[in-house]
Amino acid sequence: MTELVVGAIEAILMVLIGLHLSIFLLYFERKGSALIQDRVGANRAAITGFGRKLGMPNLGIVNTLVADPLKLFTKEDFVPEGADHFLHGLAPFLALFPVLVTFVVIPFGDTITIAGQTFNLQAANLNAAALYLLATIGIGVYGVALGGWASNNRWALLGGIRATAQMISYEIAMGLAIVAVIMTYGTLDLQEMVRSQGGVWFGFLPRWGLFVQPLAFILLLTAGVAESKRVPFDLPEGESELILGYMVEYSGGKQAAFMFTDFAEQALTAMLLVTFFLGGWQVPWLYRDGFHLPGGHIIAVAPLLVSILGIVSFLVKVVVLCAFLGLVRWTLPRFRYDQLMRLGWKGLVPLGLANVLVTAFIVVATGGAH
Amino acid sequence: MVSLSWLMALSAAIFVIGVGGFLTRRNILVMFMSIELMLNAVNLAFVSLGSRLGTMDGQVIVFFVMTVAAAEAAVGLAIIISIFRSRETVHADDLTLLKW
Amino acid sequence: MPAGLFWFLAALSILAALGVVLQRNPVHCLLALVLTLLAIAVLFIGQDAIVVGFLQAIVYAGAVMVLFLFVIWLLNLPVESGPTGHLALKLFGTLAVAALLAELAVFLVPSRLQLKFSSAHAAGYGSIDALSQTLFSEYLIAFEVTSVLLLVAVIGAVALARRTTQAELQERKEASARVEKAA
User: Fold this and answer.
1) ipTM of the assembly?
2) Is C124 on the interface with B (CB under 8 A)?
3) A86, A248, B13, C65: which could join A244 in a potential S-S bond, CB 3.0 to 4.6 Å?
4) How many domains does chain C have?
5) CB contact under 8 A, B54 and C121
6) Which of C34, C73, C127 sits opposite A149 (nearest CB)?
7) Is B99 within a domain?
């Protein structure tokens, strides 16, 4: 019973982390882009001018995190004539929920011992978690596809078809990258994967997956960005050709759900990359009993603090990667649709296959992953 | 533990629904979907029986059924598309070219 | 698998399967089919067929059904109105279904299913290890043949579905003209 309660609390915690990261990304979208493009950005909500009196720059937090969502959720929820009412309402949630339920399998810390009881800091300890997340990502396609179809709008349908084709194509590259990772660690369990990334090579280099599978890292990064339909892969929408793509007939809360899906997918991509390649909750040189610095020094750390440091390390890595994904969005120009398909099928898929092949040879030559 | 009979009954029910759909619907695509229903009913029976016998064979066969279903869907849908291009219909009763 | 979960999934899958057959709009049929597939996937996982269950969700619900959706969109199918097809066929179909149902009911009486039950599974049953051990030893040839089948299916699908270009049509015309001239 306690296990169930703890699991539920951890699941809620994880979903909340995901949602907060999405909000962070939303903020970055407004204010970070302004920073990159050398403009002021959101600046109209300095309530009472409090920050300015202290000489702080206006961060626009109220604009982006309070006013924007309030505006979205109080708008009229419009359903166009001739639309499929049921599916039109269902689609945004069909897109959002698969992403949210994927968060629960990601380990955000090692075991933690509180009051004599040990908890595993992973909400759902699935032993086939890698398959689970491929399945949920695959189901997420339907939200976008049906959103486009149920709107009874040509642009929406075209946007939906583009989005679906893009997501399906890049899912294959994503799957191939994950297969190589699974072969490297010899397990489908994400917690096990993170555990085996502990320790060091050559006395100083952390045993992170990035150094074993650099190609898979790049593949998963690219496929993840494409999967979340962000620039440079934001082909499903285009102001001049498709307006807002599959979202064009959505307003208010439903459109917010669609927008949130993209941000949540980005946060999910960051979490997956951290779990597979950047050591998850591992802190470099930190073991159960404390830091073992490369020079041979040992700094003892209390076990509880080690667990907390793990959680902090996971969050820091995820936030940094999220910021990196935001940077990518505001740095690269967008692709054309045929270029996108060519990159997916002629670039990423063959590279992924080659990576799987080479990994298989190396795993067999070194006597298996176990 | 749910008894095997109930699982088999469920599998049989889905299979029968699939057969009914295949026989009564005339839209080729829906007929195709009914075939998928039947395949899945059989898959369920394979997994249930394999699980009770404690062998992996049932699951391996399901794996093969899935692969064949994917291949079948690709070819079948391609045939439907080319039929639609030349005859402008997906209604099975309208495809009477081989009847004389 | 807890009994409550089984009953829920059984009711869900039967309702969804009925939806496939009874809905008039092909897209609704397809969604009902996806729901059936997912319910069956959970039934697989509930019986320790974990990998197969997830594969069902990834391959069947996530990929094959999207292909169906694309074809429905491509053909721009209208919603059917009223009963279609010959009534005699419907009658015959219903009778056949009833006969099949009766036969299966007789066959599936609990006393007839004499099987050796081992409901407690060995550790690792249904895991990717166990599945691949069986797949790549006993069923290796079948597996290899399946890969060839998939390749053939891909080539066949492309050959069937792709439009003949104007240049190819021209070429064919010229070729047949040449044949006629020679004759």
Assistant:
1) 0.89
2) no
3) A248
4) 2
5) yes
6) C73
7) no
